[in-house]
Amino acid sequence: MKRFAKFGLTLLFTAAVAALLLLAKPIAESVRGGIDICLKVLIPSLFAFMVLADFSVKTGMLELLLRPFGWLCGKLFRIDRSLGPVVLMSLIGGYPVGAKLLTDLVLEGRMERRDAERMLCFCVNSGPAFVIGSVAVPLFGDTKLGFLIFASHLTAFFAVGILSGFGKPSFSLPLERETPPYSTALVNSVASATRAMVNICSFVLVFSALIGLLRLTGVLGALGTFLGSFLPRPVAEALLIGILEVTNGTNACAGISGIGALLAATALTAFGGLCVQMQVTAIVSRAKLSMKMFYKFRLLYTAVSTLTAWGLLQLFEVPVSTMATPGGIPAHLFSFSPLSSLFLLILCILLLCTARKSVTIECKPKTRRKYVGK
Q: What is the span of the domain harbouring residue 33?
């Protein structure tokens, strides 16, 4: 059986290489689209949050300010109260922020793996900057719908957080820890966020190429036709693309009319797509965290988000109409410049290279010579 599987994978790999050679130009266009997503959407909306989140957790700067929120999280989710900043940053920072912070805590020896795996179930969320600025504004031209989607995710966040801790013992973190100087913490936070950002953008480019390859070879169209027997064709195509990569999927929601576009966008941003989940897997693998519990609760997270969005639409009777084309438009909340994002990425890579060479002076105590009097 393993031989057949290996032979099948070899054939698939050979076919993919041949397709890349024969369709090099159009696939290159797909990769350029992925670069556009990285420069216009991901870097502006994620990078600053990742630096801030890492810096606040390393220095403990927000623990006093967020003590009430930490107390609430401790009661609801059965976690340590000092993890309030981690939970909040995972909620507002974007998909990989929570996974990165939990991984760092495990690597520092401050958290057990089983506790980090449980928190991972509700600490991987799409932030409001992405949902509003990269989904609602370009797709619907309405920020209110972005807040509605984020409120739906917030409901799923609390539901999964409570259920994942149901029947589980509460845990606490060690009280004593070494707090680095602010200057050292800032340099390390920027370097760490840069590594994570390069990792995220790399996965987006790979999946953009994969989506282009599947579209050009007709695989995506065939799957869309098959699912079209059960769902409208635009919905089927948007879901197929979004399951692979969320930003391309939400752009494809422009082909869906009415309330279906918002429900599909809510479901896709809640699920995150395989691209986001592989980013999370790559991050947590450094701490050898298992993703089994995460996948179990992710389907529940997606279902609760979608049902909540439907309920809120019925309750407030919000009109929904798409204004983008199915091909997608450059998503923005503010006027981001791709060139400035590119320079920011280059500067961060330079900082990452120099951060490894930064010297931390260790003062070793001098051994005093004993004076022996004659």
A: 25-171+194-322+336-355
